[in-house]
Each structure stands twice: as structure tokens, then as C-alpha cells.
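tool_call: predict_structure(chain=1)
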Amino acid sequence: MITLLTDFGAGSEYVGALHLVLAASCPGRERIDLAHDIPPGDVRLGALTLARLAPLLPAAVHLAVVDPGVGGDRRAAAVALVGGGALVGPDNGLLGPAALALGAAEAVALHPPAPGTPATFHGRDLFAPAAARLAAGERLGDLGVPFDPAELLAPDLPDPRVAAGELTAPIVAIDRFGNLQLLAGRADLDAAGFTAGDRIHAAVSHHGVAGDRRHPATVCRAFTDAAHKGMLVHIDSHGMVAVAVNGGSAAQRMGATAGQAVTLGRWTPS
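tool_result:
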């Protein structure tokens, strides 16, 4: 099995090119598209997405390409996992969290493509052929020069700021429903002292300071625990703190974009 995760855009010719290389090199191998809608160049979100999806099928060869440094000096890597699967992609932070989650047994820096190969599409010309070779049963050591998998880069994942009655964390993703996924987990929500049923507020934070526009929200277990069009804060399916609107878009209501931060605090009616 080969899985694919990229920022190429669903249905793009770039995704098609990866599939064609894989189909030509190892016909009969089943392929699964994990995600191709990672925002362009968003290595952090690509890494988090790969780390939470790859464990669902740990024995697969996971081909991941979010590669804003293509053609530069970033390392091209393939990683053998303790469960029998592999990761293939740029060593720019994209593979690090998944390698940590699944256990990296060994890693190689891939041999460069043949001279004269275009420098801007390593997904097609370097990573997909390497993934195909691994899926066909070749040894990892035949693909490149070994290096310590502990050297794999990881993305910047800053800790949230937590105090009694307040939590501030960056927005790492906004899904198609307008839900805001924050770089914080259940333990952070607990440390702030927020429990189910609490009335709190959510505000876009600027330079670590919550903005004046504060939106009332309720800490809930699921969307339907909030009133229709009501804002809620909950732990999402990936164990991360999320801000949502039952039947609406939290991003639209708050005017929030990925990369900003959100501050959650106790609700104090004016």
C-alpha cells in the first residue's frame, strides 16, 4: 500500500503525475490519497496531518511532499519504520512527527536524481520513484546514504500559553466548515481550568494580547451540546482544542486566519 499527502491541490496534474509514476513502477500496488489540500508550503500542518493519519496504516509506504525548499539544500529522505512501513519525502520537518509517532528504525538520504533532471518537481522525479521501489520490496539501504533518524527535522510547534482562566494558542488549521484547530490539547484546556459547560470567550490574539472583539462560547463535548449558531470550544477528533460554531463558521465569525492565535478566557458579561 502507498499513501500520498501533498500540498499540490486535489485533482491537480501534479497529483496525477505522482500516481502515474507509482502505477508505472509498481503496478498492482493499491494507493490511497490521504490529503492534497494542505495549504501551499505549510510544512507544519502537513507534518501534523501525516503524523495522525499514518498510524492508521503503519505498514504502508507514506509518500509526503510539502516542499517549499525543492531544489535547495534540504535533505531528501526515506525512513524505515519499526512496523514495517516507510516514510518518503523532504527532510524539512514534514516527516519528523510521523517518524516519532511510528518509530524510525533507519533512514537514508536519497541519491539525487540523474543529471539534467528538473530541479522543481522532486515529488515526481525523486520521491515517487523511491516510494515505488520501497513498495516493490527493495531495501532502504539501496536508495541512499544512511543517517541517524534522530536527525530528522521537526516543525516548530510552540507550546500554548496557559494560566488559570486563560489559554492562548496558534491556529494551525481551518477546515472547510470554518472550525479553528489550535495547537493545544486536552491537558492545556484542563490546566486553564476549563470544563464542560463553562462559559468562556474566544478572541483573536495579536502579539500575545487578546483583541477587543470577544465572542461568547461554551466548553462542550460535541457540536450539538451548543445552541444552534452558538460558539463552542471542544476537543476535536485529533485530541486538539478547537473553536467551532454549531451550524456555522468560527473562522468567519471571528475573522480568523491560520497563523493567528486565539485566546480563550473566562466570560465576563459587560
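agent: The mean pLDDT is 95. Proceeding to next step.
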